[in-house]
Every structure is written in C-alpha cells, then in structure tokens.
Specification:
By secondary structure, the protein is mostly helical. 85% of the residues lie in helices and 0% in strands. α3 runs antiparallel to α4.
C-alpha cells in the first residue's frame, strides 16, 4: 500500500473516532433533534457504564459500613448499609434502562441502514 494511501486511511479512521467520541459528550437533546441514532446509542451506552460504576461505588460503601460498624449505633449502621444497597440497586436499574435505550437506537440505526428508501 502506498504511504500516501496509508496516511489517508489513518487520518480517515482518526476523524471517525473523533466524531464518535464527540457524540458521547453531546447533549442528548441535540442528538434527538438531529435523529442521530448512532450518537444516541453511544451516549446511552456511556451513561449505562457510568451508572454501573456509581452502583459499584455505593455497594462498596455498604460493605464498608458492615466492615466498620459503629459500636454505639449498630442498628443505624445496618440501615446505612441497606440504604447504600438501595441506591446501588436503583442505579443498576437505571443502567439497564440506559442499555435498553442504547440497544433500541442501535437497532433503529441498523433498520434505517437496511431500508432502501431514500
């Protein structure tokens, strides 16, 4: 492959990656207005990852409460741990919804790509 063609392919690939990375940071309202299903799929997948990370953090807090209970307030410490787990559970549910949205937009994108209409 000639060096100029290789350079052109590398630059094209970089441009695509930068465009996709830019979509993740975009506000969903703009992506919705543009009907940018690829950008929305990336956005919601990114949100799902962040929500799952937050859920893991809250689960870690619950474990810390259990590992280091307050000897003067054991009942409250157990409640603190349970509240942390409740937050973690809600975050995981939100992550699942975001993953569902990402998959739906990816499916719409695939459907539109196979649609022969102009």
């Amino acid at each position: 492959m000639p060096p100029s063609l290789r350079l052109a392919l590398i630059l094209s690939a970089c441009a695509v990656l930068l465009a996709l990375a830019g979509c993740v940071g975009m506000y969903p309202d703009r992506l919705i207005a543009r009907q940018d299903h690829a950008g929305l799929a990336l956005h919601y997948a990114h949100e799902a990852r962040e929500l799952n990370e937050k859920a893991h953090e809250w689960e870690t807090l619950a474990k810390l409460y259990e590992k280091h209970p307050d000897v003067n307030a054991k009942a409250e410490t157990a409640q603190f741990a349970e509240r942390c787990r409740t937050i973690a559970r809600h975050l995981r549910q939100a992550a699942e919804e975001a993953e569902t949205l990402a998959a739906a937009h990816q499916q719409t994108l695939s459907k539109n790509a196979s649609d022969p209409r102009p």
